[in-house]
Structures are given as C-alpha cells and as structure tokens.
Amino acid sequence: MRVEHDDREGTETLASDVDVADTFLSRARGLMFRRSIPDDYAMVFTFDDADERDLHMVCVPFDLDALWLVDGEVREKTRLRAWRGLGAAVADTVVELPAGAADDVEVGDSVRIVE
C-alpha cells in the first residue's frame, strides 16, 4: 500500500509504508507512544463519511504533516508540532506523514491511497 500525490507536475509517492487506522482503538491510539516513524511512512485514518476530524499530538514526540481529504481532494494541510499540536478540518480520510513529506502538497491537490 502507498500514498500518492497528484498535481500539475505529475504523480509522486508520499509514503510506501502505510498503516490504516480504521477502528475506534487504532484511531484513538494513532501514533501515540512511538519514538519515531520512517521517512516513507504514513498513517491513514479512514471514515465512512466527511465530517469534522480533529488530531492531537499528545504523547507524539515528533512533528507531523497532516492532510485532511474529501473524496481524495486535499481540503486542509497542517504541520502539527510534537506534544502540543492540534488540528481539525472536514474529511473522510486523514493522512499523517513525517514533517516535510507533504511540503509539495497544496490544498486542492489529489492524494490517494493505492492498494
């Protein structure tokens, strides 16, 4: 599984090591208590419908890039700071990546999860 980003320049792989958080417990834990994540890693939170989705960085000791998607379109992008970051936006999918991995992603771009 991988996370791909499409823009006017073409397609780029943002992550090739992907975990999907699709249960209550996996979503609640997220990346808490991990010391680090690989450069090519993403955690993808999937939901049945688009609604307000919030993220916190409690017990996450490294910065992250977060993308909120609706039907594969980036609706919001935020850098979340270690331990104290907060973010919220409407999404049916949320993607967490290592800080800097989403530098080239802009609101309105397409991001997809490829099996």
UniProtKB/TrEMBL annotation:
Q: Which is a Pfam family this sequence falls into?
A: DUF192
**Which InterPro entries does the record associate with it?**
DUF192, Saro_0823-like_sf
Q: From which domain of life does this come?
A: Archaea
Q: Which PANTHER family match?
A: UPF0127 PROTEIN MJ1496
Query: Would you tell me the protein name for this molecule?
Result: DUF192 domain-containing protein
